[in-house]
Amino acid sequence: MESESNLQTKLFELLKSQHNSSKLLTELISLLGVSRASVYKRMNGEIQVSTIELEAIINHFNLNPALLFSNRDNMVSLMLPEKVKEGADPILHFLNPIRDQIKQLALGNNAHITFLAVSFPVFYSFLYPELAIFKFYIYKNSVWNPTQAKIPPLAIAQVARNQDYINLFAEIRNAYGHINSTEVWTGDFFQSTIDELKFYLECNLFSNPEEALLVMSQLEKTIENIATMVKAGNKSTMCRNPEKNEGGTLDLYYNDSGHFGSTIITESEKSSLVYLTYDQPNYLLSGDPLLIQDTKLWTSKVVQKSSPISKLAMLDQIKYFNGIREKLKWGRETLERIIE
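RE: above sequence
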């Protein structure tokens, strides 16, 4: 049986791992109806949390009691993002919290992202609105609304005029561009987008088939931007004012082992979080220290076993990206044959 002191320690360690410290303190003051000093004393173990207070905290913060009462050392907590409400735009619903989290991270000291991507790394799609719209149209119809009887054709030019989308893409791109990152991608990270364009063309899911070539052009431009960032060693190209050269560092690797899934670790002096995808782009979120420690160890091993791109000599970098350009050329020719 868990001792009362250990239970109380677990309770507040769990809360601190999942919530911003100042917001947590404010909520506890309001929830328990006590002073700031009294909350601190409960958090430090100087005052025992009553049974009534324990129940109120568990219910208010939607905690899993098993994490508090179990003696198992391998149990961790995970959170699902809030489900989209009926009638809401699933793209805005999905991206708004990510925008908030990335912007908050960018403001922190020593902010860093570790990103393992098994398909197109989503943050780079925000370099071009039509490319991002196409990618999220795929998610909307295949993941977020898979049971609809018929997929409506996509009119990219029309959707691209949605200012809410444009502003959101720009905010995420700019914030991400300012954060130092270590990234591991598969060698054919771009191929899934080409395959999706081909599939949607063959199924007549573009209102204007020529728009598939527009998206393809933006994919090609994105690769050129990535090549520029790798050469420079930073992501200033993604920032709102690239000429200021304020971008975070980019340490890029590729790995075709197939022994990892899409994973993101965000770190700053204030907090760390892990994002684990389970149905691209859906994810589970955790601030659990045990999971973060284990994931950092695992991802560091993936990085060690990956081939560096950023550290390649210039001629080797050119060779690497020329290989991608050649495959993009084949992809474009395939799309053009379908349209003809």
